[in-house]
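Appendix B. Raw example, untouched.
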Amino acid sequence: MNELENRLSEVPTDTWGSLRERLLEEAAGQDLLDLAYERHDSPFGTLLVVAGPRGILRIALATEDEAEVLHDLAARVSPRIGRVGQSAIATARTQLDRYFDGRLRDFELPLDWQLTRGFRREVLKQTVAIPYGSTASYAEVANQAGNPRAVRAAGSALATNPLPIIIPCHRILRSDGTTGSYLGGSRMKEALLALEQGGAD
């Protein structure tokens, strides 16, 4: 170990953390970061909320691996990503809390749709239009998105929804009325439906 390494090893860990936070804040202030993220506690575990200049880009559920999500975003969007505060994230966190408390029916957030394209994006845009407390089937969403026969493709679009909860894919059920799969797990899907249907008029 050389002299520099010896000196660095003597720096307290909390000092490194403070330095890192300060550098990230400076980078964000100078527009050196393309994406910002924060963790957010919810009744369903810790969510990862990611935003870029155009709005909220990604909500990762507790069932997802945070490192994998960030790696994927670095590869697909930009490696210039850091854990820093951002106004869109602060607004999203407030609205998520209000939603989980049953005090918010419709999210009013700027969304960045760049992680979806074509038919998948159309499926998700149709999903956003489903009212609070209501449900639709995969077949109905495929039809509304312009391709009634693409039920499987619609299911794939919903399974890879980059903005769960905000884009309410939990409102999509199988044709027989059963809940079907959900990235956060069937219990989370059932709980979200119960929250909405308990508070719906």
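End of appendix B.
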